[in-house]
Amino acid sequence: MENFERKTSPKNGIDTENWFIESYRRYKGHPIRILIALYKGNYHKFVMAVICFFIKHACVWVLPIITANIINDVTQKNPDTVRNIWISAALEIGLIALNIPMNYLYTSYKSLATRYAETGLRKALIRKLQQLSIAYHVETQSGRLQSKIMRDVEAVETLSTQMFLSILNIALNIGVALVVTASKSKIVFVFFLLTTPVAAITMVSFRSVMKKRNTEFRKEMEETSARVMEMVELVPVTRAHALEDEEVHKMSGQLFTVAEKGYKLDLVQALFGSVGWAVFQVFQVVCLAFTGYLALRGRIMAGDITLYQSYFATVVNQVSAIVTLLPTIAKGIESVNSIGEVLLSEDVEQNEGKKQLEDVTGIFDFEDVSFHYKNSDKPVLNHLNLHVKQGETIALVGESGAGKSTVLNLVIGFHLADGGKVLLDGNDMRKIDLRTYRKHLAVVPQTSILFSGTIRENITYGNEHVSDEELERVIKAANLTDLMESLPNGVDTMVGEHGGKLSGGQRQRIAIARALIRDPEVIVLDEATSALDSISEKLIQEALENLTKGRTTFIVAHRLSTIRDADKIAVLADGHCVEYGTFEELMARKGEFYRMKMIQS
């Protein structure tokens, strides 16, 4: 893999991912110029591919000349005919033999260049997705993004091949045919040129409708990809409620919509191709009649009819190939624009040039903080004030929509305050490099997120050089010891897709272990014990009390019994902190917290 990466990388040390994004910005609205820019540093590979192509195709271009010469020698009874036949045969065989090594080199140079662009585009998309805001990911279906990374990039790679190599291919074939024809007969050469305007008119007449159909089909494919992913994730829910038929019916409607768009696209492409083919076949018949007439009048030799017919067939086939390529080119250009929707998005987390944090103590101040989401005018947080000391554990409680998760997102830095300030150790969160802060942060979300791999890999994610002793300590603290002992491969057991081979409680405890192994200064626990049974929950609560000691911890919990030992409890309502204090203090006030606790009792 390293050898292939070295071969495909540009020799001038271009930062591929950033260059691709910059190319989209610089040539926005000009997909062909973007495509050309993607190959900067690899143009020499295309030059070598063209040279190898020229050599490997020489046998095809020379054969009509040899054939015409032999026919002319035979018909004119040339005394050197036998010698000329042997020389011509030896020359053609030699050119044919060259085809094999030249084809290998041609494919090698072409593939190295196109695979470089394909991989670079995917890397650029992946890097951009890591930079885009959490709000962007919430609003964009993951299936659409997957379609861009896989389907659209593949279409761009195909477009690259067609634009840089197939079209060069076509140009060389037409060029050789026209040069040889012009050198032998100006009349026939002029006749050949008359086909060009017809080709241009045919292509232009279909361009706008082709673009429209490709755009419609691409958007429906993205929508289908997104819905298929949702359907797969919902299979357990669908099966549990006997909704299989409803889900099939719903997906069938989407699939028929895609089929309809694809059908319309197929019809346009078929009509486009057949019209072009028919026009050029008619011209080829006319060429045969025209050159036969010229031979009859003595303007050209009889053998030259074969030469001109072969070269005219080459011109016709190559122009027809351009017509055939147009749907692929239109699809590729649409995919270039589709990828640009991600790469040109400005909804990114800006960290460059901001203050970098070496150490974090974990003191937070919410000063008159207000926040609302883009799709809503109603503020989620409304002039919230809160002070959290270093090493303090603060629990956030309140009804749904009170702003608890929003406070956690502000603590993590997923969102920034619209009004007021969120201060970390006296630093405005808007003015710090959040990446340096998050190295001191650990998060356990409400829904455990595991990837396909081993338990060890999931726990040590981002901390690969963890000692066995440290891993064992964290496993014990997260109450995973019994689970590890019960599994045949222990920590090296595969968890399956999304941790599907484990129970909900086991997945959550692994997520807790992943957070704990980071040894963070700030911990965010969003309903971290919600998926645990009562016995495991008690053991986890004891472990968390020991491991959060000396670390600033934010907890969101709906079961109020789990936050009895928190240093402070903040009760949120309508974006305000309406009550603040210890568990005992809030119970003694018999206010909002007391009312909530009594409802759960």
Automatic annotation (TrEMBL):
Membrane-topology annotation of the record: Multi-pass membrane protein
Compartments (UniProt record): Cell membrane
Enzyme class: hydrolase
Enzyme Commission (EC) number: 3.6.3.-
Gene Ontology MF terms in the entry: ABC-type oligopeptide transporter activity; ATP binding; ATP hydrolysis activity
ABC transporter domain boundaries: 364-599
SUPFAM superfamilies with a match to the protein in the record: ABC transporter transmembrane region, P-loop containing nucleoside triphosphate hydrolases
GO cellular component, one term: plasma membrane
Domain ABC transmembrane type-1 residues, every copy: 62-331
Keywords: ATP-binding, Hydrolase, Membrane, Nucleotide-binding, Transmembrane, Transmembrane helix
Gene3D superfamilies found in the cross-reference section: ABC transporter type 1, transmembrane domain, P-loop containing nucleotide triphosphate hydrolases
Parts of the chain that traverse the membrane: 46-66, 86-106, 163-181, 187-209, 270-296
PANTHER family attached to this UniProt entry: ATP-BINDING CASSETTE SUB-FAMILY B MEMBER 10, MITOCHONDRIAL (PTHR43394:SF1), ATP-DEPENDENT PERMEASE MDL1, MITOCHONDRIAL (PTHR43394)
Protein name stated in the entry: ABC transporter, ATP-binding protein
Organism: Roseburia intestinalis L1-82
